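Case study: Cupin type-2 domain-containing protein.
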Amino acid sequence: MVDYLVSNVKEVKMDRVPVNGSKNAFIQWLVTKENGANYAVRKFTLLKDGIIPMHIHKYQETVIVTKGKCKVCVSDKVYELREGDYIFINSNVKHAIINEGDQLEFFCIIDYSDDMRIITLDEDCNR
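Here is what the predicted structure looks like once written out:
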């Protein structure tokens, strides 16, 4: 646990997104419980044709788009998000994110729930 943390996004390891079926999608964990936080701040980068398929999880999340544009399927609706847009997604609400440009970047803030599993759904984000 730390009293504070100063860093740069470029210094944080980039991993593939662990959601089954994800394509050209990468994640960086910036602030985590290992730092003493009760929440996590993550940065996602989706390259051209990048996708995080339909899935659910118990934790809540807020997605804030900082670069590019995307389609977000949430519940039974579809939204187009661009730089500066954000969306809150409650726990156990199905959702997917599809990059609709060259490169998409967004920050995602989540809480820590007692179950951090991600369940991929056999559904497409078609609308």
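For the exam, be able to explain this: The chain has one domain: 20-114.
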